Amino acid sequence: xxxxxxxxxxxxxxxxxxxxxxxxxxxxxxxxxxxxxxxxxxxxxxxxxxxxxxxxxxxxxxxxxxxxxxxxxxxxxxxxxxxxxxxxxxxxxxxxxxxxxxxxxxxxxxxxxxxxxxxxxxxxxxxxxxxxxxxxxxxxxxxxxxxxxxxxxxxxxxxxxxxxxxxxxxxxxxxxxxxxxxxxxxxxxxxxxxxxxxxxxxxxxxxxxxxxxxxxxxxxxxxxxxxxxxxxxxxxxxxxxxxxxxxxxxxxxxxxxxxxxxxxxxxxxxxxxxxxxxxxxxxxxxxxxxxxxxxxxxxxxxxxxxxxxxxxxxxxxxxxxxxxxxxxxxxxxxxxxxxxxxxxxxxxxxxxxxxxxxxxxxxxxxxxxxxxxxxxxxxxxxxxxxxxxxxxxxxxxxxxxxxxxxxxxxxxxxxxxxxxxxxxxxxxxxxxxxxxxxxxxxxxxxxxxxxxxxxxxxxxxxxxxxxxxxxxxxxxxxxxxxxxxxxxxxxxxxxxxxxxxxxxxxxxxxxxxxxxxxxxxxxxxxxxxxxxxxxxxxxxxxxxxxxxxxxxxxxxxxxxxxxxxxxxxxxxxxxxxxxxxxxxxxxxxxxxxxxxxxxxxxxxxxxxxxxxxxxxxxxxxxxxxxxxxxxxxxxxxxxxxxxxxxxxxxxxxxxxxxxxxxxxxxxxxxxxxxxxxxxxxxxxxxxxxxxxxxxxxxxxxxxxxxxxxxxxxxxxxxxxxxxxxxxxxxxxxxxxxxxxxxxxxxxxxxxxxxxxxxxxxxxxxxxxxxxxxxxxxxxxxxxxxxxxxxxxxxxxxxxxxxxxxxxxxxxxxxxxxxxxxxxxxxxxxxxxxxxxxxxxxxxxxxxxxxxxxxxxxxxxxxxxxxxxxxxxxxxxxxxxxxxxxxxxxxxxxxxxxxxxxxxxxxxxxxxxxxxxxxxxxxxxxxxxxxxxxxxxxxxxxxxxxxxxxxxxxxxxxxxxxxxxxxxxxxxxxxxxxxxxxxxxxxxxxxxxxxxxxxxxxxxxxxxxxxxxxxxxxxxxxxxxxxxxxxxxxxxxxxxxxxxxxxxxxxxxxxxxxxxxxxxxxxxxxxxxxxxxxxxxxxxxxxxxxxxxxxxxxxxxxxxxxxxxxxxxxxxxxxxxxxxxxxxxxxxxxxxxxxxxxxxxxxxxxxxxxxxxxxxxxxxxxxxxxxxxxxxxxxxxxxxxxxxxxxxxxxxxxxxxxxxxxxxxxxxxxxxxxxxxxxxxxxxxxxxxxxxxxxxxxxxxxxxxxxxxxxxxxxxxxxxxxxxxxxxxxxxxxxxxxxxxxxxxxxxxxxxxxxxxxxxxxxxxxxxxxxxxxxxxxxxxxxxxxxxxxxxxxxxxxxxxxxxxxxxxxxxxxxxxxxxxxxxxxxxxxxxxxxxxxxxxxxxxxxxxxxxxxxxxxxxxxxxxxxxxxxxxxxxxxxxxxxxxxxxxxxxxxxxxxxxxxxxxxxxxxxxxxxxxxxxxxxxxxxxxxxxxxxxxxxxxxxxxxxxxxxxxxxxxxxxxxxxxxxxxxxxxxxxxxxxxxxxxxxxxxxxxxxxxxxxxxxxxxxxxxxxxxxxxxxxxxxxxxxxxxxxxxxxxxxxxxxxxxxxxxxxxxxxxxxxxxxxxxxxxxxxxxxxxxxxxxxxxxxxxxxxxxxxxxxxxxxxxxxxxxxxxxxxxxxxxxxxxxxxxxxxxxxxxxxxxxxxxxxxxxxxxxxxxxxxxxxxxxxxxxxxxxxxxxxxxxxxxxxxxxxxxxxxxxxxxxxxxxxxxxxxxxxxxxxxxxxxxxxxxxxxxxxxxxxxxxxxxxxxxxxxxxxxxxxxxxxxxxxxxxxxxxxxxxxxxxxxxxxxxxxxxxxxxxxxxxxxxxxxxxxxxxxxxxxxxxxxxxxxxxxxxxxxxxxxxxxxxxxxxxxxxxxxxxxxxxxxxxxxxxxxxxxxxxxxxxxxxxxxxxxxxxxxxxxxxxxxxxxxxxxxxxxxxxxxxxxxxxxxxxxxxxxxxxxxxxxxxxxxxxxxxxxxxxxxxxxxxxxxxxxxxxxxxxxxxxxxxxxxxxxxx
Length: 2036
Hints:
- The protein is of the alpha/beta class and 2036 residues long.
- The chain has 72 helices and 38 strands.
- The strands form 10 sheets. Strands 23-24-22-21-18-20-19-13-14-26 form a 10-stranded mixed β-sheet, with helices on both faces.
- β13 and β14 form a beta hairpin.
- α27 packs across α32 (917-958) and α63 packs across α64 (1784-1816).
- The longest helix has 42 residues, at 917-958.
- 43% of the residues are buried.
- The model is unreliable at 1-77, 254-431, 516-522, 1131-1135, 1534-1550 and 1556-1570 (pLDDT under 50).
């Protein structure tokens, strides 16, 4: 019930009152609830007149709560400070409780302000969610809007911005744009910096009103920044907010200017609201008639009252706007003068209805009782969509083709059925006929609009008239559509489209389930309670009435046309293409559902191509001619069919028998799903083409267009006139031929025209009769359809055999009075740009277009590809040849740059850059259309020639003709094939040219010149197209090459726009023309080329988005589909075919997460060839640790229903696969017995059988429905498997392309493959491993330091490993947890899994090693401590005596306390006496005298001292390891042996010795030459050097094993080492063909001594310090002198004791500070210093950089010979620079901090000890014990003997004295030199060396480059290094020459050269198969490197002379340095290291 406002305020004014329901305010209702507004009915096109009356009466009753005054309501609500409306895409924001701006998904909630925003900024802000809402009338504008926030998802911001602004302007008016704020949303890991730049290209975009934020909207800073910008905008706008009144005003201004021609502005919301039916109008008129006093005024009042209070009663498709607006709209509608053609048609229809009303079976509404009218028009409760087709009186005015025989053509319309016309006159307030006609037209139009809106509502398309369906909506993977033929009505449109996209022609036969909601309220079959005779009477009576209220289902063609009207132009084009493929008729003339204008959708036909074959007889020979052309350009006859009046025969069905009697090309009344009610097909003209197959049973010999005008042609004059004008033949169906019939005028006109005419009469049974030439008459009555069809076919064939008019679809654009979709401004803009390009091509020979305008991809590109592949097939002088080829590649790139300025490409790229997204789509489509039109004739001609020549070749082969004629024909065929390749031209070639232009300029780093387009923008343009759904070429089909630079940049741009999304890569393989592309296009709605003559070449990739609906089920965001050219292409022959196919198969199999193997037919030979290629590809993947999956698709199988045949087929396939696997295993050299050993494969699940594609014979055959079902099943299967995969990221995909292609360029894929992504992941893991181990090492160093202090303090005498593990336990557990997190959560966790166990074990081993190492070091400290126990036991005695005597002496000299000189003299004398007394009988420990020991040792070894002296003085022994040539050390074996025998004491005559010596000297030159020229010189040099290194290491290990630190030095240690060295030399000589001079042994012994003496000296010093009493006492002298002075000055015991304490603290704190500082500096450098904070490879890079910067040749040689030594030197050098120059201040601050920490520690210990003693009343001994215990872990503190200080009892005084002394100590330490660290145990460089050098040091067997793996033992991973180097750097030279080798081993492994593992080996190995050599070669991975390796080229050139001198060899001959190497600078060399 409703009531009038108590305050008499007029209802309905937004500014004065609020409308509220009883339970909640209307404004708090969700948008979808507003749509329902008080009733569950969403879309009810018919309002009940009784309800209208009720609404009127309710206005005057007292009901109470529906309407409240505005004043009272306004007092209750809080007005928000800001009102924000969110518009745009729902995908642009993540709605959730954490979202600050939008925490809920409710829509149009105006009253409540946002609590989250209030919490954030304390302001009342109302946020209205209109995301995804496209109808403003669902949202009452009763509040001022301060800002419209247009939310745009990053990557789609350009297209969404344009459509969003356009929608906002249409919905709210142009003024609303002033209040627009653009917000681009992005993922947290995305970068959207480019969005602003891109949006600036839109003229409407305002940069100041732009913002970016994350999709989650959880960042408070982002939201606050957004609100600040909004506040600025509000302050600038006048008025500050946008109101509803402004919106109304905008709409009123805009309504008359509505642009009818734009296809996306079909239905305006205000128009759609005019949905009152004739029943309502009639009822109002009746009310007016009954109350003449009120008249029209009363009617108006009724209307107003209904609008004000009847929202719950008065229902419409879209909720009503306020009454004043509706009245304005209604008035405008009535007075509209638009659509005059439509109005005329309606008038004529109405006239026809009146004329035929006597014979009509439809009961007029005028004859029905009032009650029946009310019942029929009453709305059905709870129905979602109430259609307008249920009662007879509201049926469409014209009966369509679906009516049964005898049905009337028309049904009356209620508003026109009053006999006296008073209703109409009263309704309009005018009695003249003009007003009546206008009112009638208006009512008809409103009824038609209401019917259309209801239909769209039922199909859930009501929003799509404005927001059109686009290709992007279907270029995504959504939930699967069920295979059954029934669906619910809501899903009807989607199901139709989905099935159409997969080429299922049954798409339009899908029926609605009877149990769906639409039918849930239908009544059961009624029963009549009659029996017997009464039942019989009832049978003949009309007792049973039909349920007219029952809703019929939607007509299939209404579904098709509704979708058509709701689609944008590109999707229409796609839809028409699919309909054509399904062999369905296509809409040619289409009435607009709103304006009723006639439109020709010419654009939708533009890319449609038809192919047919004509058989012509000439000279008694049949010649087949194949034609293939764009149908718009084809000139064909056209036969038009239309009917005049109503007849029982189906015109469409008759036409089907002419075109294809097995397929319903035109939908007719007998098709499944047909109904009597049909709304959108009347007036539609459909067209279909008959295409002959060149067979005898063809109905027609040429292509013929058939056009079918639906509905009565009498009422569709314009369409009828157009078709008759364009037709070659007109076929007219009439019910009767009668001069008095209404159709007679039309027939007479047709008969009199010159065009052929065939009249088919329904009431005549006569055969065909020719009335005059070209005019035929034929009866239909009582004749079978086949007879009529055959006769009609003959007549048409006869007419067309003579002269006839031709129809060209393109000419429809010239027809006046209709709208052509191509006239759209956007389409014309794109067309204009494309025409500019095509003008350049017109008149040109198609064969020359590419050579003229696309030169970069022609011969230049082919030459570049060929040369690039030759880089991997080098022979001869490898590096010189490589440099030459690199120069050739560079020259080709320069030539490409010169050729890149063609006018064609300039125009093309400029258009791509300048056009907006929609314009660009039109431009690309038009360009392809024009190109196709240009090339069609040439291509057809060439294909015809190819076909003829191929037939001739086959004929000769069948005859086994081996003559020259066959060769000649084959040559001609090859020439035609080349022509075909040249003439094939499309957009892909222009994109390829863009890629080549980009690659050429990028490789040369050329900047664009004036007049050139910016080539650097090309990848961005291509990325935008790829994202929008265009396929992009991955592998060039003409050259079989992958343009890596272009593809990488393209993918980088895609990543930049989308983020590094995860993709599931699906690739496909199969033989040529096996339907791969067709399958992918049908499965995913893709655009891969499938037309004949345009087979896919190379490989293309296309992105398909995973829809939001199902994204939760997948771990990836996109499916990336890779389509490939067919295997076994006809253009390639023999080995070329096999090699190309193997490359292609390996490439796409490696790329794909899954590969579809497409097998066509059942030919075993074809299958075997494909399987062999595919299995080998999978075998390679297994060997390189890639694991894709596969599915076999067996197409064109004869009987897929026979399961037993399928089982047999699967068995045979399994056998073939197993057989191929064995063969492939043998060829690839690996083990595999069956296919399952190669790849996870289940023959029962992974093999799918497809029916043949066509249901019949092309070209007229539709697709096989079984094929479509198979497509759907396969897609579901693929997605189910894909759901178990994470896919790969786009970056991984990019690197995989690189890896696969670089490996394929080499002949041996497996040896050459390098998984870049895996390497990157492993290197990142190495860095993490370094962090983990450093954490453990740091913890262990801390533990070690604490335990060391305890041992030194005498508090610990044993250390156990288990204790160390316990101490490390917490840190170790944290590391384990960090490892678990890393391996579980990293995005590459699947790849990391292979190393997880190994690294967990390595960490455990590292912990164990650290524990064992610390135990070993601490055990040594304990041993040293134990070794000096004797001295330690004496120390208290020494100190007690010294203290006592010092005190006594001081008492004697108290009076001379100020005489420093006297005191010093007396104390020195006293001290000497005391020390002598205390050390009496104790032998002092001597220092080491190496000189005497060396003399004795060499005498024992029988070496002359002169040799020793000479070696020492020259320093020769120090260089023995770095000598380049050891020939000076070599003598002949026999002579040397004789000399050695003599040296060992053999009794030989001295003369003999001299002779022997002379002979040796005489022959020395010859001997040396022998050594230099022998084949194995290099190996021997390396063997000697390795021998020296081994001897050094063994000798040092032996020395270090001696207990020098605990027992002291003994000369016997060096004796033992010398004897061992001599023994080793003897053993070495015994295995060589030469001997070594004694100088070698002398130098080697001295070299070892020199390396050992440093350690011996240091260890002996420790022993002496710990065990020499004299040394100890001397170290205490100054301490006791200070005590002596203090006593002299009269100081108390406490003062002296304090000084002793401070003296002890001074030394121990310095040590502690230095040790801690050393560790802190090491930690700081490890974490932050670039060289040390990465992995081993990173360290290597910095070492090489340092060497290059210094240009230190000796350092380089050290690095080459002993890389670890050089790395250690580098670390020491960098630490030194860090501490003393680069970061001196930081290091000093670290030291000061540590000083402060120690000070705090000691001060606290002092305080705690004093307090504890005072509490316990202890003595000085107790104080000393307490104080030292507090410092036990941090300081080495020697306990002071307290016996002489027992008189101390004032501990506070003692504390004060110590604090004073401590202060001075700390001040002194603050300025401590960092050099002091060198004196103590911990040193930063040593700590870092231990950490960084504990890695792999194995050298490459070819070039000696050191492995850069961070793990020392990284088995089973092979050794590798980023950069190898020329082997000559380590001394390699060619056999029997002095020519150093300059070849890189990375180049050699790609060459055809061979090597021997040993000089005396007869077996050679190809470098390409180096692992087969075994041993150290098998442990290395050396991949061919495409990088320029500039660093080592620069090194060789820079140090050429030094290297030649060092090795005494030359860089000449085969080792000549290429000139190109000398062009590189040092800066380039250093920069190239960044590639590591």
